[in-house]
Specification:
The protein is of the alpha+beta class. Helices cover 29% and strands 26% of the residues. The protein is built from three helices and seven strands; from the N terminus they run H-E-E-E-E-E-E-E-H-H. The strands form two sheets. A five-stranded antiparallel beta sheet has the order 1-2-3-6-7. Strands 4-5 form a two-stranded antiparallel ribbon. A hairpin with a 5-residue loop joins strand 6 and strand 7. The longest helix has 18 residues. The radius of gyration is 16 Å and the shape is globular. The two termini are 28 Å apart. The structure holds ligand K1U and zinc ion. The site of ligand K1U has 15 residues, from strand 1 and helix 2.
Length: 167
């Protein structure tokens, strides 16, 4: 197992579009294990492969309080969505920044599991938010892209200051 370095916004590699996984092999299983370890250690409730500079469609999520309900999504696709919710979001690639984003309240996601079988997940509330947030990462999108230009500029300034202070 290994902890993977997490890219920080506005790193241009966060804009890359992830390719579908063609074969679920030991490399993909190791990636998912390392991503889960990285997410738990951060700590976070989700992580997309894009954030660890691997541009394949792999996501790990665990929204449980006990941290014992890991979901691994490979090649996820939203096949149905409805409703609207506004949720305060954070991101391990945008440390210390939280803001409200509007997303679908319910999504049905078709995905592969690590044993290669197809699975449909009906997600509501925080799980639906987290899935949409992580699927955005696979498309090169970070949650701050949903915010106004003014807020994005302020966030970049704040993160650049943080980076200078910790250098
Ligand atoms: O994608 C990421 O960087 C992970 C991100 C996921 C997320 C959080 C909130 C709304 C939507 C998506 C995080 O996990 S940020 C950290 C966080 O929210 C958290 C950390 C520890 C305990 C509980 C939450
Ligand atoms: Zn994120």
């Amino acid at each position: 197992m290994a902890l993977l370095p997490i890219l920080r916004f506005p790193d241009p590699r966060l804009k890359k579009i992830a390719s579908p996984v063609e074969k679920i092999d030991d490399g993909i299983r190791r990636l998912a294990r390392d991503m889960a370890e990285t997410m738990y250690e951060a700590p976070g409730i989700g992580l997309a492969a894009t954030q660890v500079d691997v541009h394949r469609q792999v996501i790990v999520i665990d929204i449980s309080e006990a941290r014992d309900s890991l979901l691994v999504l490979v090649n996820p696709a939203i096949v149905a969505r409805d409703g609207v919710q506004v949720c305060e979001e954070g991101c391990l690639s945008v440390p210390g920044i939280y803001d409200k984003v509007t997303r679908a309240e319910h999504v049905k996601v078709r995905t592969l599991t690590l044993d290669g079988s197809e699975q449909d997940i009906d997600a509501h509330g925080l799980l639906a938010v987290c899935i949409q947030h992580e699927m955005d990462h696979l498309q090169g999108k970070v949650f701050v892209d949903h915010l106004s230009q003014l807020k994005q500029t302020r966030i970049k300034t704040k993160l650049a200051k943080q980076a200078r202070e910790t250098a």
